[in-house]
Amino acid sequence: MPTTENHDLRNIYVSTHLGHRFYPLAPSIDDVAIEDIAHGLAFQCRFNGQTQHFYSVAQHSLMVASLVPRRLALAALLHDAAEAYLGDMVKPLKNLFPEFSRIEMEVMAIIGARFGVAGFDDRQIKRADLIALATEKRDLMPHSSEAWQSLGGIAPLPARIKPLSPPVAKQLFLLEFQRLTGIGTAGVAARGVAHVLSLRVPILAPLPLMENADV
Questions:
Q1: Model confidence over 87-97: pLDDT tens digits?
Q2: What per-residue confidence (pLDDT) applies to 188?
Q3: How far from 88 is each of 36, 182, 195, CA to CA, in Å?
Q4: What pTM value is reported for the model?
Q5: In a 10 Å sphere around its CB, with 0-12 CB exposed, 13-18 middle and 19+ buried, how is residue 177 labelled?
Q6: Is pLDDT of 16 > 80?
Q7: Dihedrals phi, psi of 21, to nearest 5 degrees
Q8: Which of 69, 109, 114, 174 could covalently link to 187 via disulfide, CB atoms 3.0 to 4.6 Å apart?
Q9: Range 58-97 burial, b when 16+ CB lie within 10 A, else e
């Protein structure tokens, strides 16, 4: 039987963009909303904000989804979805808190159940994640000159990243979710698909248009 202390901890919740309550220690499938996920990821910067330009987790997710086969694209798009509720803890710090990783896995399981998707740890998604990471390191953290052990043998993409604003990243994330699932979202419907399509600026800029593109 849970102690009073444990019971109180399970009642801790995160308030979301849509006004929902998400309970990290007692996640419920009914509390998961794709617009909350898109909003949270779009307004959250990768690498703890230690980048040259704001670069969202949502844009990272879109890049990873673009690098895998169609059958894995939804899992790739949502592979960091728990961060919308738990935050994007940097890897070195996460390794010090195994309990956080356990909570994150449980939240991912609930998100997977909500949208009928699994395989977030598929090897092709993991490789795409590393390719995105290598590209992000090159383009967004040029002063991080040391080699990252996790990127051994991984080459960045030839094109440069073009950072998106949070509102644009959010709308593109929702549009991609709608394209992959056929499920309409309030965020897209509110502005209209035509408007969202008009925002589809490239996530990656072709190398010939960029300066100092040494890869």
A1: 988 878 888 88
A2: 60
A3: 15, 28, 29
A4: 0.84
A5: buried
A6: yes
A7: -110, 125
A8: 174
A9: bbbbbbbbbbbeeebbbbbbbbbbbbbbbebbeeeeeeee
26/86 Cα distance (integer angstroms): 13
C-alpha span between 46 and 197 (Å, rounded): 25
Q: How far apart are CA 63 and CA 123, in angstroms?
A: 16
Task: Name, in order, each residue with C-beta under 8 angstroms of 112's C-beta and a sequence gap of 6 or more.
Answer: 75, 78, 118, 120
Distances in Å between the Cα of 87 and the Cα atoms of 1, 4, 32, 108 are 30, 26, 15, 13
pLDDT by residue (tens digit) across 133-191? 999 999 999 888 888 878 888 999 999 999 999 999 999 999 999 999 998 766 565 55
| Residue 141 dihedral angles phi and psi, to the nearest 5° | -130, 60
- The residue whose two tokens read 């509720």 is 85
Determine the 3-state secondary structure of 14 from DSSP: strand
CA angle 78, 84, 52 (to 5 degrees): 95
Token pair belonging to 126: 């993991």
